[in-house]
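Hi, here's the filled form for the chain we discussed.

Project: internal
Contact: R.S.
Residues: 280
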Amino acid sequence: MKEVEIIKYLLPYLNIQESTLLPGLKINEDAQALIYGLSIDELKAKYDEYAANAKGAAFELLKSEEFNQQLNRIPFRDEDKIVVIGDNSADEKGGWAQILQDVYNFGTDNEIKVVNRAASGKTSTEILKDLGQTVLAEEPDWVIVSMGTWDAFRPNYASDRPLVSLTDFWENINSITVAIKSLETRNPIIWLSPSLVVESIANDYPFFNGTLSNAEIRAYQEVIRDKDGIIIDPYFTRFGEELAAWQFANDGVHFSTTGNIETVKTLVETLSRFENKKGS
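And the returned structure, exactly as it came back:
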């Protein structure tokens, strides 16, 4: 049962590098396979599968002429480094961060590097604590911040309050903003609104042992909407007015391939409207 759980559910979202108590510790694939109870060949095969899925999604997006035009207007410059930090909405292997890398690789003449330092289940408090290793040490040109959903999580054994209160979330966001702005880059922070969930699925999912409320998550979205920078999908409308299970993985929280594609489309469309003033 353990192997089935890892391969079919956990593995795409397990990020040993970002979840370790020693941020910055490099754990090679041999060690990862041992931790997961897999052979190195099994692990590599799964990683190849996730990469192939992301590439396939990228090619689907690039079939659209409108998307290609938007992609070539986004403000990333040749050789820019983009660091993604956040929680389950960003951490998936082969998810939207990898698809963004692939559409840029195959759809433009420039090269960028997307470094994904997100980890499922992280709150803003944990992300702030690790910011020195995940962002500042990378010295990126751009930072995409995608978090807030798990701040609103209420464990079953302590359901009287969310993991991170709105007040603490607001203070964490301010501290994260100050830290990122200390970088030499003059580019604005890119904020991806906290993602909603399919409550009927997520709150019955045995791995979570707690509840998430979209009404509560929307309060965290309001904090993000108040920030300076580029706000992506501030009201989380990219999946339509009614959330559907097929836009999410089988836990109702992580995104499906369709959800990841819609996220990239929304990112690119929004960024294409931004006037890059870097260096002015």
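Let me know if anything looks off before we file it.
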